[in-house]
């Protein structure tokens, strides 16, 4: 699968690729976090047939729906599989500014680049939590990213 | 006390009416710029109502509008984007400028207005409105289209060309010949080169020199700093007789990263306000009585302007390997002219070189700001119908 990246000066970036079923699909990432999910016209391959505009929160939710289960499955051997990528577990302290607040409020992916892939609460794993998932004190948050990025998530969850 | 009351009443009336006009434009699906110009015609010299108390304020507001238009334009593009656009699409850019300045230059000579007016009118007809075009492409859901990067790269090159053109024009308008203004032109071009180099190699450092990323999470501080800096540089540029607009544009280019994005966001309502004031002011300086006599020349220029932009877009898209429909879409998308044509004409009107230039430019932009979005919207059905007719004939 070849993902093509094209710069859109003044607007952002476009990524697109051809699916195995023959459709072309792409994402236009605009500045300020808005995303356009675009499906190319089957007849005129230069033109967008369908365009869905997503907010930052919606595109996070969509990407988690599409991709997160795989990430969780591979969490165990992730450090060996991808050099430079680590999974980290961060506890939510009672003093954390995000205790009692929804995950979406942290904007962790936008701000740090690391993804929150699961939350462990009372020994139960909540895989791919949605942005409206509410943190409680004592939750263990599982993040994936580079060591620096996961460290920034830890700082973010501790200090806001 | 009394005069403030009048200013409030007039300004309030003007802004409220602009709001209504903007709403109308949105309903019809055209750019509000032509309606703002018409609003200015109605309240200016020889118009229906005359604004006495607030004219001075509107004039200053209009100049701030120019600074903000160019500042946000500079913020939109990074130096890397400007230079990579220059490298990969230089031929399309040259074709665009030559083809689209030609009608203006020819018109100025045919009308007997002389070489300086020709330089002005060439600029007026050449530069597309990146504001209108980005909005139209977004509204029509065409940001993901494969011809869209082609359209955007033409716009990027026009903006880079403007950074060279505006100081030359300012010098020409002040000195009437390039030779006598060559020092200020050299200063401006030198500054442009330095700013581009700095922005390219050391942009984060430059941005950090002026801005503290932590403190600037605060929108208010960011707004005050960026706006203040742009006005300072614009004022300095003015004092050195380099164009104010270019000063603001360079500030925009020099800033990068999150600061630039944040600044663009907080400045955009302010830009909308003062740009509207600028369009009104331009309309105010134009005598409505002179519009009918400019209408013929304006319509011919508009017709030529549509054709030359469609050819530009068609050619640029073809060299990028885009199909027939996409080539026409690219051409039609480029048709809109707007804010920058008015900025250029405004400089000439302020310098007072040719009294009939203002009405002609107003007329031209009125037409092109309306035709542009309509052309982009209807290019597909029109092209399809033409092809069907051609196919039926053969």
Features:
heterodimer, A: alpha+beta, Alpha-Beta Plaits, 5-stranded antiparallel β-sheet, 9 strands, 25% helix, 34% strand, B: 394 residues, 81% helix
Your description of this structure?
The complex is a heterodimer of chains A (160) and B (394). With 160 residues, chain A is an alpha+beta fold. Chain A has two domains: 4-54; 58-159, Alpha-Beta Plaits (2-Layer Sandwich), CATH 3.30.70.1450. Helix content of chain A is 25%, strand content 34%. The N and C termini of chain A lie far apart (39 Å). The model of chain A has no long low-confidence stretch (mean pLDDT 83). Chain B is mainly alpha-helical and 394 residues long. Chain B has a single domain (2-389), classed as Na+/H+ antiporter like fold (Up-down Bundle), CATH 1.20.1530.20. The longest helix of chain B is centred in the last third of the chain and has 37 residues, at 357-393. The A-B interface holds A 6-11, 14, 16, 26, 28, 30-32, 36, 38, 40, 44-48, 51 and B 76-77, 81, 84-85, 130, 134, 141-149, 152-153, 155-156, 261, 264-265, 322-323, 325-326, 329.
Précis, in short:
Chain A is α+β, with helices and mostly antiparallel strands and 160 residues long.
β content of chain B, as a range? under 5%
Considering residues with a beta carbon less than 8 A from a beta carbon on another chain, report the largest interface and each chain's count: A-B, 22 and 28 residues
Counting DSSP E segments of at least 2 residues, the number of strands of chain B comes to 0
Query: Which fold does the CATH topology of chain B refer to?
Result: Na+/H+ antiporter like fold
What is the CATH topology of the largest domain in chain A? Alpha-Beta Plaits
Helices and strands of chain A, in N-to-C order? EEEEEHHEHEEEH
Mean pLDDT score of chain B: 87
User: Could you give the order of the helices and strands of chain B?
Assistant: HHHHHHHHHHHHHHH
Number of helices of chain A: 4
Strand percentage of chain A: 25-35%
Level-2 CATH architecture of the largest domain in chain A: 2-Layer Sandwich
Radius of gyration of chain B: 21 Å
């Amino acid at each position: 699968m070849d993902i093509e990246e094209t710069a859109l000066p003044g607007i952002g970036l476009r990524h697109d690729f051809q699916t195995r079923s023959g459709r072309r699909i792409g994402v236009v990432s605009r500045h300020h976090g808005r995303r356009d999910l675009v499906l190319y016209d089957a007849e005129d391959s230069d033109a967008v047939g369908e365009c869905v505009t997503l907010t930052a929160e919606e595109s996070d939710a969509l990407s988690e729906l599409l991709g997160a289960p795989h990430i969780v499955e591979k969490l165990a051997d992730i450090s060996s599989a991808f050099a430079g990528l680590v999974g980290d577990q961060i506890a939510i302290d009672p003093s954390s500014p995000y205790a009692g607040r929804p995950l979406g409020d942290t904007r962790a992916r936008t701000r740090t680049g690391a993804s929150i892939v699961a939350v462990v609460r009372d020994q139960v794993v909540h895989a791919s939590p949605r942005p409206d998932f509410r943190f409680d004190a004592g939750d263990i948050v599982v993040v994936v990213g580079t060591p620096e990025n996961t460290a920034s998530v830890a700082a973010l969850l501790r200090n806001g | 006390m009394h005069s403030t009351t009048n200013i409030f009443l007039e300004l309030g009336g003007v802004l409220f009416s602009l709001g209504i006009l903007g709403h109308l434009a949105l309903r019809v699906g055209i750019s509000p710029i032509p309606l703002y110009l018409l609003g200015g015609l109605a309240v200016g010299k020889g118009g229906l109502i005359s604004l006495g108390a607030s004219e001075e304020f509107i004039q200053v507001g209009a100049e701030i509008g120019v600074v903000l238009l160019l500042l946000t334009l500079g913020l939109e593009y990074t130096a890397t984007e400007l230079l990579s656009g220059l490298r990969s699409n230089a031929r399309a850019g040259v074709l665009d400028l030559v083809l689209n300045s030609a009608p203006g230059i020819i018109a100025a000579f045919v009308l007997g207005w002389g070489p300086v007016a020709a330089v002005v009118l060439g600029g007026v007809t050449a530069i597309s409105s990146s504001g209108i075009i980005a909005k139209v492409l977004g509204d029509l859901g065409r940001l993901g289209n494969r011809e869209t990067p082609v359209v955007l790269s033409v716009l990027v090159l026009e903006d880079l060309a403007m950074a060279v053109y505006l100081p030359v024009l300012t010098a020409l308008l002040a000195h009437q010949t390039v030779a006598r203004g060559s020092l200020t032109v050299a200063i401006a071009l030198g500054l442009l080169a330095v700013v581009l180099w700095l922005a390219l190699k050391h942009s984060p450092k430059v941005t950090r020199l002026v801005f503290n990323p932590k403190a600037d999470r605060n929108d208010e501080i960011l707004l005050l700093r960026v706006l203040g800096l742009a006005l300072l540089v614009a004022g300095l540029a003015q004092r050195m007789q380099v164009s104010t607009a270019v000063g603001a544009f360079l500030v925009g280019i020099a800033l990068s990263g999150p600061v630039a994005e944040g600044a663009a966001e907080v400045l955009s309502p302010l830009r909308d306000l003062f740009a509207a004031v600028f369009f009104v002011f331009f309309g105010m300086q134009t005598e409505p009585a002179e519009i009918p006599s400019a209408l013929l020349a304006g319509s011919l220029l508009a017709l030529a302007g549509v054709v030359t932009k469609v050819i530009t877009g068609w050619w640029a898209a073809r060299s990028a390997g885009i199909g027939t429909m996409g080539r026409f879409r690219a051409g039609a998308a480029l048709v809109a002219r707007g804010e920058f044509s008015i900025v250029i004409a405004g400089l000439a009107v302020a310098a007072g070189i040719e009294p009939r230039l203002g009405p002609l430019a107003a007329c031209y932009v009125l037409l092109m700001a309306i035709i542009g979005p309509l052309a982009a919207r209807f290019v597909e059905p029109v092209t399809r119908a033409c092809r069907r007719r051609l196919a039926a004939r053969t």
